[in-house]
Structures are given as C-alpha cells and as structure tokens.
Amino acid sequence: MAGERLTHVDEQGRVRMVDVSEKAVTTREATAAGRIVMAPETLALALSGKGKKGDVRAVAEIAGVMAAKRTSDLIPLCHALMLTSVKVAVEASPDGSGLQVTAMARVKGQTGVEMEALTAVTVALLTLYDMLKAVDRGMTIEAVGLVAKSGGASGDWTRA
Length: 160
Description:
Layout: E1 26-37, H1 40-48, H2 56-69, H3 71-74, E2 83-92, E3 98-109, H4 114-132, E4 140-150, E5 157-158
Antiparallel strand pairs: 1-3, 1-4, 2-3, 4-5
Helix pairs in contact: 2-4
GO molecular function: cyclic pyranopterin monophosphate synthase activity; GTP 3',8'-cyclase activity
InterPro entries: MoaC, MoaC_bact/euk, MoaC_sf, MoCo_biosynth_MoaA/MoaC, Mopterin_CF_biosynth-C_dom
Pathway: Cofactor biosynthesis; molybdopterin biosynthesis
C-alpha cells in the first residue's frame, strides 16, 4: 500500500480528476456508519420524535440523502454521480450510548460510491448535533467509517 501512487496526481505531480472513461460500467455499492454519543435524556428525546424541532431522526435521514447527492460539490476532485439509490437510517446505538447512522449508496457507473456513503453519514450526524445541541452540547460524533463496498475493479471489501 505504501508504494502505491495516488490516483489524483498525474505523472508530472499535478493534481487532477481521475479519468474513469475506460472503466467498465458496473453496479457499485458502499455502506458507511458512524455514531453520535449523547446523554440518556437527549437520546430519549431524539427517539421520541417529539422534541421542539420535531422528529430529528427523520430530518437527519433526509439531510444524509441530500448530502450524498451533493458529494461532488463538497469533496474536491470527486466525480458527480447519478446515484440509483441512497438509504440513510438513524437508530439507537446497540450499546445505548446515542444514535447510530448507517448509509448505503448505489450507482451503476464507472467509479465507486464510498464518498457518497461517508458524506451521507457525516451530514446526518452533523444534522443531529445541530438539532439537539440546545439540549446537549457535550455530544460527540465518533467512528465514522466505511463498512463495506462492492463492485468495480478493486472488488468487494468488508470491515473486519
């Protein structure tokens, strides 16, 4: 891995957008996840859907979908993709410490959707923070990362 050349740098060392025109069109999918840790009272409020700002989970899910669709506007050199599916779920963390966000992005194209899934999770988490910060400024966003990807020349990958 350390000897691999970064693909966003050309032979002369200049930054460029990767040319994917020769890549095969395949179905590519990526799933990412992250969590926001909060006080038990904040979690109960978020799960109730009855806070002063309404159902914060529903708003965060919509924000995540919208963000995935705008990833190329946010991440330099990221290709604009015609996403075929984006799903974002906000649920209680298995350990009860807060909320977990999971996002899946899918495309039939020439490049992967890892950045779209990661962007969806990150924006959904930031939306939760924004909507709940008046109740709990001590919340922390943690463990944002790729969970799995499939399709493309590099094949499938799943976090161990």
